[in-house]
Input
Amino acid sequence: MYQSHHDEEYTGEAYYGDSSTYVSPPTRTRQRVIIVAASLVTLLVGGVTADRIATARTESRTAEAFQDGMETAERPSVHVSGFPVLNQLAAGSLDHVSLTAHDIPADGTTRPLPVTKLTVGMDGLKTSGSADEAHADSVTATAFLSYADVSSALGVQVSQGAEPGRVDATASLPLVGDVTVSAAVSAASGNRIAFTDVRTEQGELLPPLQSLLGKALIEPIPLRNVPDGLRLRSVTTTEDGIDARFTGRSVTFRLDSTERWRPSAGQRRSQS
Output
């Protein structure tokens, strides 16, 4: 028997005019899945936002403390690695913190040589709840010393040497002339840079010029514009300056009354 379309039953389907097109309405299970998924996305976005805020605050506090301790004109850049940072803060230790500072000034005989650029990597950084103290399980750092800054500190013109690991130093005096010598650059004890194996490259090393170069090169120059507790491991000459590389383990940084980052008293005893 012929049955009209009006007599047909449609269960769970919606009819939209075209006899071949039906849209199933969402079931209750599908609705619950959508609601749960939307809630998870909301929680995830909120958690990421909170973590980014905590990271920014931590980076800002670290940069401010370093700027105060090293007296830099500009606040250094700080980056806290890892996610989520909130979990690291709750555990009391940051996995890795990198810091880059520029133009750390000289300060008389206490800090005779400015540092053009300082990069520091700290692993396992823990804070005591005060911005004045922090402890790192291990630290690596590189201090870049431009030839312009080295020249100003030594009183002679310093530039890259013709051979790797060497620099040229030129002394000039009115009525006497110029003389250029070549010197090997190496790491010396006490976080100092030593100039050895001095050779005359150009000009005549007359007594006044010899005296001037002797004062500049005979004594190793100390590098005190880095956080204490680090040990100078190597120096490398480049086209634009000298890279001095430091390492340290179990380093505690403390901001003392002289506004310098220094290791704690216990650490100083262990190093002596």
